[in-house]
């Protein structure tokens, strides 16, 4: 898995050589990225479909993500104590929510944890870390893909969730005068699919550098999934 430090990473890695970074485990990279100030790592995961038959895969998805992370991190308390995955399930406000609505929810979450991040992103500045760059979406198709998962790592069953960019600038959007058909065909690269087995420390570190998004992104409609 390729990895290179982003703008935020470089500030936190002044004493770390490029060779050290490349040779380090995802767990060690998380330590460097978080620093001693008590930051958290992990993503927010929104459920947007509430059909009763999808309750079981939603529960299994949560268990597998947490288990995979703990398995990869091991018994390192410095990283385990800062792990914080937010699984958000609220049919009143999230049932059928689209990604723009989820971004508004995400912005509220980020503002609650660190108001400075929202100000910085609205001002067009660089990354503020993986936790605030992207979130995960478990929509109907993603949850259907999780049907049949057992307590394993989830990577061998075609199970996936969606990774969504939390911030979309105007340059990514179709022109205001675009027709409905043009908007429908606009190749907006603001989300992709990721294998459940890939959700964990390594992918979290990768998304700390927003430029890495383009290494892994593939048009979801093509059926491509970030799996390695």
List keywords for this structure.
single chain, alpha/beta, 5-stranded mixed sheet, 5 strands, globular, WW domain-containing protein
Explain this structure:
43% of the residues lie in helices and 10% in strands. By secondary structure, it is of the alpha/beta class. The chain has one domain. A 5-stranded mixed sheet has the order 2-1-3-4-5. The longest helix is centred in the first third of the chain and has 19 residues, at 55-73. It comes from Podospora pseudocomata. Residues 1-28 are annotated as: Disordered. This is WW domain-containing protein.
Write the layout of secondary structure elements.
Elements: H1 7-12, H2 18-23, H3 26-34, E1 44-47, H4 55-73, H5 77-80, E2 86-88, H6 91-94, H7 99-113, H8 115-122, H9 130-133, E3 134-138, H10 140-145, E4 160-165, H11 180-185, E5 191-195, H12 201-206, H13 213-216
Parallel strand pairs: 1-2, 1-3
Antiparallel strand pairs: 3-4, 4-5
What is the makeup of the main sheet?
5 strands, mixed
User: What order do the strands of the largest sheet run in, or round the barrel if closed?
Assistant: 2-1-3-4-5
Q: What's the β-strand tally? A: 5
Distance between the termini: 7 Å
Number of helices: 13
Strand percent estimate: 5-15%
Principal-axis shape? globular
Summarize this entry quickly:
With about 230 residues, the chain is an alpha/beta fold. Helices cover about 45% and strands about 10% of the residues.
């Amino acid at each position: 898995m390729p990895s290179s430090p982003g703008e935020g990473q470089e500030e936190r890695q002044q004493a770390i050589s490029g060779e050290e970074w490349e040779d380090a485990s995802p767990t060690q990279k998380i330590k460097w990225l978080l620093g001693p100030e008590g930051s958290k790592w992990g993503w927010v995961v929104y459920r947007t479909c509430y059909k009763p038959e999808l309750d079981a895969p939603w529960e299994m998805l949560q268990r597998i993500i947490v288990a995979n992370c703990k398995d990869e991190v091991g018994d390192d308390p410095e990283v385990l104590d800062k792990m914080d995955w937010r699984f958000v399930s609220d049919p009143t406000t999230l049932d059928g929510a689209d990604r723009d609505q989820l971004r508004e929810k995400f912005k509220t979450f980020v503002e609650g944890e660190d108001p400075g991040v929202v100000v910085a992103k609205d001002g067009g500045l660089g990354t503020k870390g993986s936790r605030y760059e992207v979130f995960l979406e478990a929509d109907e198709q993603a949850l259907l893909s999780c049907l049949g998962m057992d307590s394993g790592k989830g990577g061998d069953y075609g199970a996936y969730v969606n990774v969504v960019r939390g911030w979309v600038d105007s340059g990514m959007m179709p022109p205001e005068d675009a027709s409905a058909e043009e908007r429908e065909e606009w190749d907006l690269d603001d989300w992709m699919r990721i294998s459940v087995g890939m959700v964990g420390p390594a992918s979290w570190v990768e998304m700390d550098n927003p430029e890495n998004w383009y290494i892994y992104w593939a048009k979801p409609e093509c059926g491509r999934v970030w799996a390695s």
